[in-house]
């Protein structure tokens, strides 16, 4: 029992000496860094790899978002061009049929009018 009470008494003294040695700069001396240089190097390398990976991830995500927006724009333009092409093709086919039958008709330049029945 005498030993356990003496251990309790030593803990505050040890903490005081650790605090004093830290304040004086004795705990983190060159010997400490020389003994643990591999750990410090490993921590620094892992930190640099994490930063690099995060940067690459963010830049690639921005590039993906930009490409997706560009793809939507291109798709919209392609659909508009397809619609315009199909409408002009239909008109050419109808004109060709009218000429082949010999009706001597031409397509109207004005848009069609809607007829409303029963409205004033």
DSSP strand count? 0
CA-atom Rg in angstroms: 42 Å
Major β-sheet profile:
none
Helix % is over 70%
Give the helices and strands as they follow along the chain.
HHH
Residue fraction in strands? under 5%
Number of helices: 3
Q: Based on Cα principal axes, name the global outline.
A: rod-shaped
General description of the model:
The chain is mainly alpha-helical. 78% of the residues lie in helices and 0% in strands. It is built from three helices and no strands. The longest helix is centred in the middle third of the chain and has 65 residues, at 37-101.
What descriptive keywords fit this protein?
120 residues, rod-shaped, mainly alpha, single chain
Brief digest:
By secondary structure, this protein is mostly helical. It has 3 helices and no strands.
Chart the SSEs and their pairings.
Layout: H1 2-24, H2 30-35, H3 37-101
């Amino acid at each position: 029992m005498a030993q356990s009470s003496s251990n309790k008494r030593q803990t505050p003294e040890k903490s005081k000496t650790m605090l004093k040695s830290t304040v004086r700069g004795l705990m983190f001396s060159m010997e400490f860094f020389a003994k643990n240089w591999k750990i410090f190097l490993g921590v620094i390398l892992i930190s640099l790899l994490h930063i690099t990976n995060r940067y690459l991830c963010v830049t690639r995500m921005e590039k993906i978002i930009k490409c997706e927006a560009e793809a939507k724009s291109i798709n919209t333009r392609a659909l508009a061009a397809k619609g315009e092409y199909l409408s002009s093709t239909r008109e050419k086919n109808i004109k060709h049929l009218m000429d082949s039958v010999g009706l001597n008709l031409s397509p109207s330049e004005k848009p069609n009018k809607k007829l409303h029945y029963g409205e004033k």
